[in-house]
Write a structure and sequence with these properties.
Order of helices and strands: EEEEEHEEHHEHHHEEEHHHHHEHHEEH
Structural class: alpha/beta
Largest sheet: 8 strands, mixed
CATH topology of the largest domain: Nucleotidyltransferase, domain 5
Radius of gyration: 22 Å
Shape: globular
Distance between the termini: 15 Å
Helix content: 25-40%
Bound molecules: adenosine-5'-diphosphate
Strand content: 15-25%
CATH superfamily of the largest domain: ATPase, nucleotide binding domain
Number of domains: 2
Number of strands: 14
Strand order of the largest sheet: 5-4-3-2-1-6-8-7
Length: about 400
């Protein structure tokens, strides 16, 4: 049986259909510019034989979902004979707040809980829910499961998620660390444990998710113990366009003395900082690397600041786990592909017992141990696969609910 995985954004829907017997992707696609002129419809079957890329009018998510369900069972381009082959649908949902701490069936009650989290993820939860509603109306008789970016971090202890604020802000307003990219952290942590032959519930590692968004997680005994993103998606290591950790005094100074509006401050710290702001060039790591190699000083500085912050988190997380680390795992666009950044971050981690092997590290997008044979802590590259994780979770929850 197959699981349909849906990642619904405000103007886009990504999807994959996954065969749960062999865990292979049967087909995948991306609909863009939903609700805007010149919508784009992308579809590809597993063998790459059937590819569609065309401009289509996609006025809303319902129409988009119908297009997806039509193409996957299309006699020519499709990969299944009928929608009966779909065992369940897994929906990526960004925020489950404090009440949802695992993947759940999308019952009316659980959808209400997701709606209550809209203030915490105003840009993500509403379009995620639009996708749920649209697919549910087309496929009402199969289980729909929500898989949450925040859920993996629900195991963090209080000392990791409570801020040093007056406790009332937690009690009254639920201001606390939530953490994100949980599906990715969980996937690579489980995969890392399996590769090293260590039981998942005894595995300690730091997972380094480095894409446009960046977050590192301390995984202790297979569970999230602490993570670098917090209440929102701004803190921790600098990202493509986001600043990462900032002294809040800077924000007050911007508001009070530089007379910037909250909108301007928001725009600066979310859209104009990070690699883009520091280098003055681009949020794309490839551009920053290229410029640094050509002698651009600010690009070089951006790389150093990035690696410095990354090292700091790895060191801190390793200490929190009592120095019992089995592995440091790199994943997502930069983590999987950027050889130089991995090397820059790992230089100096010998104090933790982690020694990178430059030759082994000379790979992109491959699952591999890139530390020296005598390195006590293994350094690993594991391509993330959030869609497969969502499919596995959906299958598990659907089975349990029978
Ligand atoms: P998203 O968070 O949008 O899913 P990705 O995981 O695709 O992001 O990561 C995007 C980042 O990965 C960009 O900064 C991009 O420059 C970087 N990246 C992709 N390929 C390479 C590469 N070959 N070398 C260095 N960086 C890369």
């Amino acid at each position: 049986m197959d699981i349909l995985v849906i990642n619904s954004g405000s103007s886009s829907i990504k999807f994959q259909l996954i065969n749960m017997h062999n865990k292979k992707v049967l087909c995948k696609g991306l609909l863009e510019r939903i609700g805007i002129a010149d919508g784009i419809f992308n579809y590809e079957s597993h063998d790459g034989k059937d590819k569609i890329k065309e401009t289509r009018d996609i006025p809303n998510h319902r129409v988009g979902i119908k297009m997806i369900l039509d193409v996957i069972q299309d006699p020519k381009a499709g990969v299944i004979k009928s929608l009966d082959e779909i065992e369940g649908v897994g929906h990526r949902i960004v925020h489950g707040g404090e009440k949802i701490n695992t993947s759940v069936l999308l019952t009316e009650a659980n959808i209400k809980l997701i709606e209550e989290c809209i203030p915490l993820a105003p840009l993500h939860n509403p379009p995620n829910l639009m996708g749920v509603e649209a697919v549910k109306s087309e496929l009402p008789n199969v289980p729909h499961v929500g898989v949450f970016d925040t859920a993996f971090h629900a195991t963090m202890p209080e000392e990791s998620y409570i801020y040093g604020l007056n406790y009332e802000y937690y009690e009254k307003h639920r201001i606390r660390r939530f953490g994100f990219h949980g599906t990715s952290h969980q996937y690579v942590a489980e995969k890392g444990a399996d590769i090293l032959g260590i039981p998942r519930d005894q595995f300690n590692c730091v997972t380094c998710h480095m894409g446009n968004g960046v977050s590192f997680t301390a995984v202790k005994n297979g569970k999230s113990f602490d993570t670098s993103l917090g209440y929102g998606t701004m803190c921790g290591i600098p990202m493509g366009t986001r600043a990462g950790d900032l002294d809040p005094a800077i924000l007050l100074h911007m508001l009070d003395n530089l007379k910037m509006s909250t909108k301007d401050v928001h725009n600066q710290i979310y859209n104009n900082s990070g690699l883009k702001g520091m280098s003055g060039l681009s949020n794309d790591m490839r551009d920053v690397q290229k410029a640094a190699a050509e002698g651009n000083k600010r690009a070089e500085l951006a790389l150093e600041v990035f690696a410095h912050a990354a090292k700091k988190y790895i060191g801190a997380f390793s200490t929190l786990m009592g120095g019992t680390l089995h592995a440091i795992i790199f994943t997502a666009g930069i983590g999987e592909n950027d050889i130089a950044t991995r090397e820059r971050i790992c230089n100096g981690l010998e104090v933790l017992g982690a020694r990178i092997d430059k030759k082994k590290n000379d790979i992109r997008g491959e699952e591999k141990i890139v530390s020296t044979d005598d390195s006590r802590v293994k350094i690993m590259v594991i391509p993330t696969n959030e869609e497969l994780m969502i499919a596995l979770e959906t299958h598990r929850v659907a089975e349990e609910s029978h």
